[in-house]
Amino acid sequence: LEADDLIGTAVENFKKIPDLKIVILTGDLDSLQLVKDDKIVSETFKKGISDTIIYNEEAVKQRYQGLAPNQISDFKGLVGDPSDNIPGVPGIGPKTAIPLIKEYKSLENFLENGQLDKNYLKITKFKEQALLSKNLAQLKCDAPLDVRDLSELKRESLPKENLISYFEKLGFKSLISRIQ
After folding, report:
1. Between 94-104 and 72-79, two packed helices, what is the crossing angle to 10 degrees?
2. How many CB atoms lie within 10 A of CB 119?
3. For residue 34, which phi and psi values (nearest 5 degrees)?
4. What is the DSSP string of 136-179?
5. CB-based contacts of 133, cutoff 8 Å, min separation 6
6. CA atoms within 13 A on the CB side of 155
7. In this structure, are residues 71 and 106 in contact, taking their beta carbons and an 8 Å threshold?
8. Which domains does the chain have, with CATH numbers?
9. What is the pLDDT along the chain (180 residues), one digit of tens a residue?
């Protein structure tokens, strides 16, 4: 269970609220799997907290050359993700993975129906690794997080002294200077 899974679970719980727009603020592109139309967007950091990019569903498709948010884990199952130690399939890169996923819609469908594809043998040789990689990349949206009401997440502001003390312990000198 990772922080991304808790975020995924919270999004899953709150996306049913009518007229609620969800913005996921993170430095991790794994959150792009959660994006849905303009209702659920991900604002990710490019370089620091002041340089961000907002991904709606169309922006995710542009970044992944036409793949939908729910196909990102299929992509990572084939290509891997070094930042998360996900191996993927050796010799399969984006130029191979993207057309396969576009045609077959999912890794599982390719494994079941892609026998005529020239990459079939290479991928099936690493079938278990590909499926494990997909599973590792896929955000879990069923974590034991019992928060169903947004009011439960409301925080009162912290006393400035407590925040400064906490930031000192963590060595966040630039943040301390911002709040003083």
Report:
1. 140
2. 17
3. -90, -10
4. HHSPPS--S-----GGGG--PPPPHHHHHHHHHHHT-HHHHHHH
5. 76, 77, 78, 80, 81, 86, 87, 88, 89
6. 3
7. yes
8. 3-137 (1.10.150.20), 150-179 (no CATH)
9. 888 999 999 999 999 899 999 999 988 899 999 999 999 999 988 776 678 899 999 999 999 999 999 999 999 999 999 999 999 999 999 999 999 999 999 999 999 999 999 999 999 999 999 999 999 999 999 998 887 777 777 777 777 888 888 888 888 887 787 777
Cα–Cα distance list, 31 to 2, 4, 22, 27, 140 (Å): 12, 7, 12, 9, 11
Contacts of 43 (CB under 8 A, 6+ apart): 23, 24, 25, 26, 52, 53, 54, 55
Residue 31: other Cβ atoms inside 10 A? 24
Residues 76 and 134 sit within 8 Å (Cβ to Cβ): yes
Q: Which residue has the tokens 């913005």?
A: 23
Kindly give the pairing relationship between strand 52-55 and strand 22-26: unpaired
What is the phi-psi region of residue 105: left when phi exceeds 0, alpha when psi lies from -120 to 50, beta otherwise? Answer: left
